[in-house]
Design goal:
Helices cover 82% and strands 0% of the residues. The chain is mainly alpha-helical. The protein has one domain: Growth Hormone, Chain: A, CATH 1.20.1250.
């Protein structure tokens, strides 16, 4: 259920009294909203032109794969360059790319959508880890949990609103309108971020954590430094693998488009409804997690483990739903878990990682989940084209459950600690 007004007060206070964070929050709301307008339109167009779940999966693989490949470079940039300028540049460079989707009209030009999707993901690979790495410098320590909840909820909010409105806009005004709105959202986001005056990083990097320089070798060496740090800090390693574990079964999200469009007969509007339900769950999940989960290391791990269970059970029930509203309930509850685990793991990493390597930590975090999501998405597309949609969903649920059990085993030294034990 939605948080009550009294529980919303700390979040509203944070937005009123911290204009730097408020600008970043609104910028991400706008940008995410545009993304989901475009996503609904692209997925609907791909299904209309090809009728293949595999093609939809391939588009999402282009998205996740490009994000993962760009992440090692983006993390070094986030630790070396001015983070504000990097965020603005990532937004502005995506404007013309988003507009290129207007050129997609038939199966012969669908490659433009695939290429544009990949390039937009490169921009996201620069933006999202940089934003997460900057957040502890834009808010006070006491406000960091609330700030993470709001940013986590911003993704869910605009998935819910953007996906729902995106479906409506596509039906009423055409897919071209959705593509233009997406391009405009990047420009507005950049304008808001330009006005942030609070520093995006600490005054000086900590000794021994400077970003490596120099091309691919330097980028991979910098990521190697983070891996070495994680090997010595179990909590950081466990949290780094949280989103990746989620991504192992996360390709099942492709099936929301298939069920919404074909299985339940909703077309683009059906896709929008299921993605909106997903977003509503991702919106409420962070607030719910913040209110019930102990934010100690042990509490974070147990909360993430419970989130995995909610996600898997909900998707296991999806194929049994005979009508679109019931399928939407499954999507909603699944992503209560998804939104909760994303916010909990992000907060834990911000707390565990030194500022001087935080950009690389988050680029590795997002890059790993990008790889796991890409592989998972390819797999579910393959399964869906050769089996029934229900079989594809249940196979991915089994995979997700297995990955979660392995992750919990790796995290055992943390969740076995006494409730007061930290470090």
């Amino acid at each position: 259920m939605m948080p009550c007004p009294m529980r919303l007060r700390p979040y509203l206070t944070l937005l009123r009294h911290n204009p730097a964070f408020a600008r970043l929050f609104v910028a991400q709301l706008i940008s995410f909203g545009g993304d989901w307008f475009a996503t609904v339109a692209i997925l609907g167009l791909a299904l209309e032109l090809t009728g293949s779940a595999g093609v939809v999966a391939l588009l999402l693989v282009m998205q996740e794969g490009a994000f993962a490949l760009a992440s090692p470079f983006a993390g070094v940039l986030a630790d070396r360059l001015d983070r504000r300028r990097l965020l603005v540049a990532a937004d502005l460079l995506r404007v013309p790319v988003a507009l290129s989707l207007l050129l997609v009209h038939d199966a012969g030009t669908l490659w433009i959508a695939a290429l544009a999707t990949a390039v937009l993901s490169v921009g996201a690979a620069a933006f999202e880890p940089t934003s997460s790495a900057s957040l502890p410098n834009l808010v006070d320590d006491a406000d960091l949990p609330a700030a993470n909840v709001l940013l986590g909820a911003s993704w869910g909010t605009m998935l819910a609103v953007g996906a729902a409105l995106g479906g409506v806009v596509v039906v009423l005004a055409g897919r071209e309108a959705a593509f233009v709105i997406n391009a405009a959202s990047f420009g507005l986001s950049a304008l808001l971020i330009v006005g942030i005056r609070r520093p995006f990083r600490e005054a000086a990097p900590a000794t021994g954590h400077a970003a490596n320089r120099g091309g691919l070798g330097g980028s991979l060496g910098a990521i190697g430094h983070v891996v070495g740090y994680a090997r010595e800090h179990r909590t950081l390693a466990v949290l780094l693998l949280s989103k990746t574990t989620f991504g192992v079964g996360g390709g099942v999200i492709v099936m929301l488009a298939v069920f919404g469009d074909s299985v339940l007969g909703g077309g683009d509007a059906g896709i929008g409804i299921l993605f909106a339900a997903r977003g509503l769950g991702a919106l409420i999940g962070p607030f719910l997690a913040r209110s019930v989960v102990d934010l100690s290391d042990r509490g974070l791990v147990l909360g993430i483990g419970a989130s995995f269970g909610v996600f898997a059970v909900s998707y296991a029930l999806l194929p049994l739903m005979p009508i679109l509203p019931l399928a939407a309930v499954c999507a909603f509850t699944a992503h209560l878990g998804g939104g909760a685990q994303w916010t909990l793991s992000t907060y834990g990493l911000q707390r565990a990682a030194p500022d001087a390597i935080r950009g690389r930590v988050f680029s590795l975090d997002y890059g790993l989940v990008g790889v796991s999501m890409a592989v998972s998405t390819l797999l579910v597309g393959y399964l869906a084209d050769r089996n029934s949609p229900s079989v594809a969903v249940w196979a991915m649920v089994a995979l997700a459950g297995t990955a979660a059990v392995v992750w919990l085993a790796f995290a055992r030294p943390i969740w076995r600690r006494p409730a007061s034990g930290e470090g």
